[in-house]
Amino acid sequence: MATPVRIGTCSFADEALVKAWYPKGVKTGEARLRYYAERFDTCEIDSTYYRLPNAETVAQWAERVPDGFVFHVKAFGPMTRHPVRLEVLPEELRGAVEPNERGRVEWMPREVRGEVFRLFREALEPMREAGKLGGILLQLAPYVVHRDHSLEYLEWAQAKLPGHDLLVEFRHRSWLDDEHRADTLSFLEQRGLSLVVVDAPKTEAKNVIPTVVATTSPTAYVRFHGRNAATWNKRGGSAAERFDYLYEPEELAEWVEPMRTLAEQARQVYALMNTNSTSDGTAQGPENARRLAQVLRGAGIYATG
Length: 305
Hints:
Blueprint: E1 5-10, H1 15-20, H2 29-37, E2 42-45, H3 55-63, E3 70-74, E4 84-85, H4 91-94, E5 104-105, H5 110-123, H6 125-129, E6 133-139, H7 148-160, E7 165-169, H8 181-191, E8 194-199, E9 219-224, H9 229-232, H10 239-242, H11 249-253, H12 256-265, E10 268-273, H13 284-298
Parallel strand pairs: 1-2, 1-10, 2-3, 3-6, 6-7, 7-8, 8-9, 9-10
Antiparallel strand pairs: 4-5
């Protein structure tokens, strides 16, 4: 029997959902999460990319959703080689790094980065203990290219998160180009790391990876970024602009056979919508999720959401 495809959105508290999806009377974070969990059974937490979570908040998230609900949590920026503003680092770590003239920390000693991993891991423990933690999303910075040092870093990161399901999203096309694709997939499979499959604009930009439908662990994870090539690398553009996209049913129908393949190969399959604009008056994430579920179910694939 094929695995169900569990569908949700990237964030339950995104501005687009607050503006255009939640009813007016659903105003608090608690009420919104409970409302979300009545309609979807999985969610990706992306706020943790911008600052470390705290265990109390994580415990509250876990308490507010029913058994069987699965969260995926995006790694804090420095864990995936992204720069970070000094003030969002824990106070005890600030003296160990050197910010640039704009107050951003672009380089971090390995031992300091290891402390960031430890704090992140400990903060997620309440969710893990509650049985509601799925994977940790490691979305590598777009300048992290396929090379030996990058492979070593992924091995080191995995050692810092023992026992966790790690979802690796590459942001430089060298990882999955013709020269390196087989090596990348083999590396992930040997270490039980999950390849994040993406739907993204059709462009030759270096920071857009090709769509490669493959499983490298028991978890299949697909992120839908939309196909807005015009705004993907727009200078000064916001995330809402970059991921401003409402999929047409025929575009989502392109995913019927890939999803069927993933559902036959993996033990768990997740599809998360990272489309987060309201440019057309619609909360695109939930609407795209609804459309995908409808398309898959119409094709005989069991999908939630």
